[in-house]
UniProtKB/TrEMBL annotation:
It comes from the Eukaryota. This is RNase H type-1 domain-containing protein. InterPro entries: RNaseH-like_sf, RNaseH_sf. One of its GO terms (molecular function) is nucleic acid binding.
Amino acid sequence: MTSRLQKKLDSIQRLFLLYITGVYRTALTAAHQLVTGLQPFHLHIQQEATYARVPRARSSSNFFTVLFSPTDCEIKSSGIHIQPPPYFLLHNQILFAENHIDSGAKAINTDGSKTDEGTDSAYCILENYGIIASWQGKLDRSNSVFQAEIFAIRMAIEAASSLHRPIKIWTESLSSLMAILNPKSHHTMVR
């Protein structure tokens, strides 16, 4: 890092330190850093760059006297960890048809939604045009509609597997289906 860039980062950090501490402008930047317990900004950036470099390069790196090893880092997951049975081809199991003929046979309809009260997830099992069973789940307010949809599909799959017969699961969430189809999906709820 060049000395010019270090000075620029110090001047940016100094303004924030002045507002945080409320002391006079005549005090040294190092004094502000000491009072707040913050390290110089350029050192913090170099440390973060070392954190990022270690898992990518998969080699050890040091930041002053601290040694960072790739074994200390969490490895990013890459897709599905469970191999599906050979007769279950995911592309043959998911149908993107918008218009379907409802025969009254057993099916599960899923939905996820988000309101001011929170995020909800639900499914209902339909047979002969009537609801024979249903489930509702309340997720945290921080969850997204996508997560609610994925959770509803997951719970519907668990319910369908307990019925021990072929069943159709209907959802309106194309993004959820695309995430399920993607073998490299990083969403923890999809894996």
